[in-house]
């Protein structure tokens, strides 16, 4: 007749009475097979880290049925990594991957997702785990170009990232990537000139000129480069500093001091990149510079024609809009006689709740004028959170605080 724990004289190394043999594994397993799972969980939680590791090594040699019972104990004890290790040969691999993720073991999770055939989740898990080269390879195979560009930027390969962003038509992300080209890179000046062109096309000649002046101060090669000096002169004219432009042009051998005039409108039409507006949104208030720049690259600039619906009341939230130019009207509903609740202009933002909560839009928003805006889709933001765990924690913490403050305000 099999002895009960009370009849057994054996004691394991944690001081707990055990089944014959007395090891922690035998005691936990014995309890699990008798549906005393909660007792087994408590015993497992009371073990030291070294004892738990010895238990896992012993359990690895057990039968599949015995390991299944122990996996349930480890799940309830929240040793997700241990449960994943014991589940490796039990499957299914997608469940093993999810356990590794819960335990914070992202690379192991990615390997399990690979075995399960879920390449997209594997790529994201590799990126979270810092295995950026492996994630890049998978993103390339999936044709996920935005994710490829993000990986390239995080890997310190800005020229490759910029090339992908250029294909995607994401101007501000291309600029951000090119700004990462180091001074000693042979293509640094080429990158600076490309940035100047992009910024000027976006009606930001002053920002382009400031970058060029900084480059000239830092690089002797730049001060000798005719293309750089010619670009400096052109930008000086763009901002109305013609006399200084003439001085620069005079430094070029054989160059004329005259240059085509710049239309006055080009000099007085400033444009914002939107980075400052995005940074000012409360739920992003604790993001580091690096995380903020990564988020900025996720955003796309969009043009919305006058009269178009920006957000439809009752529809599923589609993401965040940050207004850069133009104005929108906020209505109580889509009806022609709906009450206008507000009019918003540059710097205002819409739909931030939909980035985190999946629910219907509470207001109807139409463009009063043509609008230029930054847009971050819900899918793009979720991928950002999936691959930036520290940033996700900060965002959710601030979101919770803001939500609590709103509840308190309503209660008062």
Automatic annotation (TrEMBL):
Matching entries from InterPro entries are given as:
cNMP-bd_dom, cNMP-bd_dom_sf, RmlC-like_jellyroll, TPR-like_helical_dom_sf
Q: Which parts of this chain are annotated as the region Disordered? A: 1-22
* Domain of life per record: Bacteria
Composition bias (Polar residues) maps to: 1-13
Instruction: Domain (Cyclic nucleotide-binding): give its ranges.
Output: 283-402
Q: Which CDD domains match?
A: CAP_ED
Recorded protein name is Cyclic nucleotide-binding domain-containing protein
Q: Which Pfam families match?
A: cNMP_binding
